[in-house]
Amino acid sequence: MKRGIAGSLESNDALITVKESDKLTITVKSIVYDFFHKQIEKVIRDTLKELGVEKIDVVCEDKGALDYTIKARLIVAVKKMEASE
Amino acid sequence: MRRSLLFIPGNNPAMLQNCDVFDSDAVIIDLEDAVSVTEKDAARALVSEFLNAMAEQPPMELIIRINGLDTEYYPADLEAVVSDKIDTIMLPKATVEYLEKLDKLLSGIEKKKRMSKKIGVVPIVELAISVLQIEEIVKCPRVNGVLLGAEDLSGDVGVMRTKKGNEILYPRMRLAYACAAYKIDAIDTPFTDTNDNDALTEDCLFVNNLGFNAKAAIHPNQVPVINSVFVPAQKSIEWALRVEEAARQASLKGLGVFSLDGKMVDKPVIQRAENIIKKARKYNLI
Prior knowledge:
Chain A is of the alpha+beta class and 85 residues long.
């Protein structure tokens, strides 16, 4: 199964793992889950839309990342997944 | 006119989002040595999205150190980061040939992106050949300052780096004089011991006296030290203001040369005083 990982578990970063899937699944684990999980999920959905990806499994382990960090990490994770064997 | 330029690793979100709090005159977001080969894509994407998300221009100059023109990474680096949001590209392992090539590449991107700004370039002199080419490097298009990269340079020459830095005296002097001749910033190599700010102060004072006006930093703690050295001392400012006033009085009397505290003051001395006052005003010291 193709998969890609980007980012880290350092403070202000996010570790994003994506896998090929036949449906869209987004899992958010965050140190600020109660306040921001909806916003994080929105960033992930918007970024996937920009990338033209409809079906994928995304796990975001967030350590207080800003929106642009989550977006950048997701873009790279998807690229790595697409390039993987 | 810069004093301090702080390196920030391009793949570090915490440092990026706080880059405007360190009080450096410039931050250098690094896509080169601070980023491992496996993380080049991640760093490039992060910096690109950071710039896209930036609502307003930060208070300091924004410089991006791209990967060298001898690598496969530089085209994607330039495409990702060159925009009106940044001020300057820092070019590692710069030579005249690479600087001319970079100028053409930047012109192409500026035109394609319809940018309103012309991006400046700060080459890093870190090869023996670059030291020999310095008189041509300072004349290259867009170059508004030159950074000495002593670590790579010492490797290229095959000498050991020391804290005192005798081994880099020759490149330091060549660089300082070339930059002074073309009125651009002479930026000294970072001081690598981040736990010894007393030695950093000594190093700054030494290179300031050679003609350098700025120094790169690799830790935020180095910025206040650098900023405090690369400005005129209070004693110099007081002297410069007295020269300025005496020159004004002399001019009213039609005198080009006069005496102050028993010493002759002529045009070069007045010019030096004016430069000190200009710098002191820039950093709100008067």
